[in-house]
Amino acid sequence: MATNPSDLSHRPIVSGLIGRCPRCGKGRLFQGFLKLAPRCESCGLDFSFADSADGPAVFVIFISGFIVAGSALAVEMLYAPPYWVHALLWGPLILITGLGPLRPIKGLLIALQYHHQAAEGRLSGDAP
Ligand SMILES: [Zn+2]
């Protein structure tokens, strides 16, 4: 199959970030917000191999916590605003930084899992 180098969707990392199939870069990876489709609608790749577990949440917690806690500390140190300002600022920011990256990061981890053929460890005598 010929690949067009300018077609960014065929790169596993890009296709993962935009929620496309890691093999063909065309079919949708997600059925719901975070629920995976059973298989690729374009190339038929079975997505049952994909198990990112709580990996995406861990990355999102670290990123979101760094941004929100850092911003809250900086604003408090610089302006010492009343508490309702903090509540007004950080509530929405927690939602944005928490929910926003979940899907791209889950797609990215699944694309990387597919690309590197990562799976649970098996003994060499096991059936493939
Ligand atoms: Zn596909």
What does this structure look like?
The protein has 128 residues and is mainly α. Helices cover 48% and strands 0% of the residues. It contains four helices and no strands. The chain has helices at residues 12-17, 55-79, 83-99, 102-115. α2 packs across α4. The structure holds zinc ion.
Brief account:
By secondary structure, this protein is mainly alpha-helical. It is 48% helix and 0% strand.
Secondary structure elements and pairings:
Elements: H1 12-17, H2 55-79, H3 83-99, H4 102-115
Helix pairs in contact: 2-3, 2-4
Number of strand elements? 0
Rounded mean pLDDT is 86
Distance between the termini: 26 Å
Judging from the principal axes of the Cα atoms, what is the shape? elongated
| Structural class computed from helices and strand pairing | mainly alpha
Low-confidence stretches: none
Q: Name the ligand types.
A: zinc ion
SS strand fraction? under 5%
Helical amount: 40-55%
Major sheet description: none
| Rounded radius of gyration (Å) | 19 Å
Q: What is the helix tally?
A: 4
The topology string of helices and strands comes to HHHH
